[in-house]
Design goal:
single chain; about 160 residues; alpha+beta; 5-stranded antiparallel beta sheet; 3 helices
Amino acid sequence: MPSFPIVSTGTMIYVLLGLILVLTILIIRLESCLRRLLKGKDAQNLEDTIHDLSKSVSRLTVFQKESTEYLKNIEARLKRSVQSVETIRFNPFKGSGDGGDQSFATVLLSENGDGAIISSLYARDRVSVFSKPINRFIAQYELTEEEKEAIKKAQESLAYETKIK
């Protein structure tokens, strides 16, 4: 039979009183922490606080969805807007000396290569202006070398901007 040391009753009472004191201190600290947790500006108790937080999270979720849709809409509109503008000035009458570098070809393109090219031919007695639609960097109508050059520069400009992003 194992033998246990015998502890006097007085010692046992002091140990139990010490444990009661430690437990009382722990209960007071726990109650203090619980009061701080339950204290709030608008909420009366923890349940109200959790309910208010739940409502706030729901509102934030709705706001996030609306913001995401709005940004997608803006991104789609931006892709269709004019992203690149290039102008080439030239003299269509190089041999005769008429016109100077008053003629031009200006291209206005979206990120997808859609837009228009506007050309002007200047002569002393008249000015002619032409416009041609561009779809995906390709025109339905025949282009002059200057117009092709303007489209090429606009396409390069768009490619450079895409690399930067």
